[in-house]
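step=predict obj=Carbohydrate ABC transporter ATP-binding protein, CUT1 family n=372
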Amino acid sequence: MSFLELRGITRDWDGQGGVRDISLSLQRGDFLSILGPSGCGKSTLLRLIAGLEQPQHGTVVIDGRDVTALPPAQRNLSMVFQSYALFPHLNVAENVMFGLKVRRVAARERDRRLSDALKMTGLDGLERRKPAELSGGQRQRVALARAAVAEKPLCLMDEPLSNLDAKLRHSVRRDIRALARNLGLTVVYVTHDQGEAMSLSDTVALMNKGQVEQVGPPSTLYNQPATIFAAQFIGEPPMALVEGPLLGLREGLTVGLRPELIQLSPPEQAHLTARVLDCEFLGSETLVSLDHPAGQGLAVVLPGHASQVPGDSVGVILPEQDRRIFDTHSGRIEKASQQNPAALNRQNTAPRDGQTAPEATEPSFDLNRTTS
C-alpha cells in the first residue's frame, strides 16, 4: 500500500492557477521531487499535502489514513521552508528543540534527539550560536536538524536551497539526501532546479500549468520524455528539436535528440547542414550551439576544446536510434512514428553540390543520407 497518495486533487482560485486533478502515490521511504517552472502549482500542491490549503476536490491519504480535512498538526509530518523559519532570539539548540518542548517530550529524550541531529547535520559545537552568527548553509542545516528531531515519517521541503549559493547548495543537497536515508524519511521536495531534482530523487513529478506532465525516475524523464515540454525542461542543455519533414517524416511530427548524442560530420555525409552560433568551453567538454531554420535548440556536446568557431558551416548527424518523435501539435510522444516515403525519396535522390541528378531508381529510405 502507498504511504502517500493524492487522488484527484484540485485547488484553484476563481478558475486561475492552482492544481487540477492531480493523482500521485509514493511508497514509504521514497524521495519525490515536484519539479517545474514558477507558477506551475508545485508549492500549492505541497501546501495541500501539508494541510495549509484545503482542496476543492480530491483526497489526501497518508499512511492509510484520510487526512484531507485534518490540520497540519494532525498529519504526522515535518516541514523545511525556503526561509529557514528560525527564531532569531533562540540559539541553535533551542531552535532545534522548540517543537519537542511544545509537545512536552521528556528532557532526556530531547537531549538524545538533539545530539543525534547535530551530529547528522554537522552542527556539533554550534549549539549556543544565534542564527545571526551562522552562515546561510548553517541556518539551513538548523532547519534540517529541527525536522530530524521531530522524527516524523513524512518530511515536506519547499525550495530549501534556493537562498544558498551554488557551492553551498551542492553541500547541503548531500546533507538532505543523507538525512533522508539515515532516518528512513519519505520526502516530498519542491524545486525549480532540475539539478536538485535529478540528483536527489527516486521519483520526479514534472508539473506544467497546474498539472503533472510526467512522473518517473530521473533517468526516464531524461532519456524518455513523454512530451515536448519535458524534453525542453529536463536537461542542460535541453533536448534539440528538429521539424520531422526535414528528416523524411510526415508533417506534424517533431524529432527530439539529446545534444550529447548528436554528431558532427562532413556536410556530404550529414542529415543536415547548420551554422555554428556559439561555442562554450566547459573544461572537459565544449557546447556548440547551432542554427538551422528547421531546428530549435540545436546543439552538440564535444569532448575537450572544440575547433569550431561562430559562423562555421558544419554537417550534423542525428542518429536514428536515439531520436524521440513527438506530435508537434499535442506535444505528446509518438508511440510509432510514420515516415514520409515521398519526402525521403526526394531527399535521397536530390543532387549534391557538384553532382548531377541520378537516373530514376527504386525509392530509397536510408535516413542516414538525408540532407538539408
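step=describe
The chain has nine helices and 19 strands.
step=end
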